[in-house]
Amino acid sequence: MLKLHNVSKSYNWKPALKQVDLCLSPGEIVGLFGENGAGKTTLLKCILGYLPFDGEITLDGHPITRANIARVSFATCEHSFFPNLTAAAHREFYELHFPAFRSKRFHGLMDFFELPANKALRHFSTGQKNQFEVILALSQGADYILMDEPFAGNDVFNREDFYKVLLGILEPSETVFLSTHLLAEVENFISRAVLIHRGRIVGDMTTQELEDSGRTLMGYVKETYQYKSDRVSKALSDLTGERQEEL
Q1: Picking from 37-41, 137-141, 149-153, 181-185, which range would have the lowest pLDDT averaged per residue?
Q2: Rounded distance between C-alpha atoms, residue 19 and residue 8, angstroms
Q3: Residues 6 or more apart in contact with residue 47 via CB below 8 angstroms
Q4: Model-level pTM?
Q5: What confidence tier does 185 reach under pLDDT thresholds 50, 70, 90?
Q6: Are 137 and 149 in contact (CB under 8 A)?
Q7: Is residue 7 a contact partner of residue 57, using CB atoms and an 8 Å limit?
Q8: What's residue 157's pLDDT?
Q9: From the DSSP assignment, how many helices (H) and strands (E) are in the chain?
Q10: Where would you tag: which of 64, 161, 162, 166 has the fewest CB atoms within 10 A of its CB?
């Protein structure tokens, strides 16, 4: 189990995370949702140890250190690979450093995305780079796979097909923690929705609980964030009113 207890993080005294408590169990596919600046990326980077934080993050009761960090992988649209190496060279590097590396999965996903094995990553398109990030994260052999907007720059058909493939290849012990704004696309893919707002966890429900309560994921998010349905019409009224006054 990946457990966060009372995790807080500030940038120049400005809070980014506020006393976050969260548990991720084996076999879950968890969506992390929130507006821009809510703390999603900061939360993921704290789990990985990329950022210092207050509080406690443990993996099966132990702090995440060099001894167990291989059990956690990360796919980010910021890109964390070596741009001058080929995909094949990355595979060799990962096989050398991660004993649980899944070579068969790597080759299968490379074929699925139709990515060239002997081309330097710097020559990949943005979409291809993001696809390759996901391939590395899924092939590392990690138990907890963190993804931060992994499909930026990919078309809707690639994303939809990938979700189906992912559901088919994940082992019962693998957990996916996915930060994304694409609620409609992942609603039938995730098993649980975690909502973060201004650094605090403000919602946490399984999709089964949502279904039992007769709510959609989008409805749950709008309800939790107290979305004002008249926001657009009010803004248009104000803007058109200003334009008429100028005339």
Answers
A1: 149-153
A2: 5
A3: 2, 4, 57, 64, 72, 146, 177
A4: 0.87
A5: confident
A6: no
A7: yes
A8: 66
A9: 9, 10
A10: 161
